[in-house]
Amino acid sequence: MNWISTLIPNRCVLCQHTLPDSSGICAYCLPTVKLFDVAQWPNLLLRPDIQHQTQLSDCDGLFSCAWYEGSIATWLSAFKFQNQTHYLAALHTVLSQQFNRWQLLDSGSGIDSMHTIPLHPIRYFFRGYNQTAQLWQPIIPKANIRTTLHRAHYTKPQTSLGKQARALNTNAAFTVKGDLRGKTIAILDDVITTGATMNAAARACKAAGARTVWAMSVALTPISP
User: Fold this and answer.
1) Cβ(89)–Cβ(21) under 8 Å?
2) Is the pLDDT confidence value at 4 over 50?
3) What is the CA radius of gyration of the chain?
4) What SS3 class is residue 172?
5) Whose CA is closest to 193, among 2, 36, 50?
């Protein structure tokens, strides 16, 4: 234990008890975080309610940890928009646990490379970081992360747009630099709402020759009927 952790101990983001490591969440609170059952639904696109609410016609598979609600929503929002990095360790722990469970099902054995959803340079300049790349950092050693996807033009923030407007906003939003012919790839994001951004990225990858595209996010936004 270094002197920084002695002066400012690591604490669980839920119960505030002191942690022996930098996991961000204790072993007692971690099981209380409600996650998708990857054993039952290794491909969430096959789950009827999720299939109905998302626009992921150019994706072949979907992995996510949980609904964007409760603690997961609080942590993601605070990290993404306010750069409250003390929540990042807990999100890393949750994502690593869920991804490892998914891999044990042999679901990810055929993925050739992983590609993060990029920020437009203007948005990156003002935010100062790509939250998606930081969220998926624990998975990077386990797969080949590449910056093949690029923003073709600046788009409005999706949070204020409806379902149809989101699709129009992301139309032809991405370009691909690299050879994806015959590849099985994964595209990584923080939150998928309607799936418009993810599907636009998947469409660009399919146009560049990708055979199979997995959409992956930390959370999915539940949409009211």
Assistant:
1) no
2) no
3) 18
4) coil
5) 50
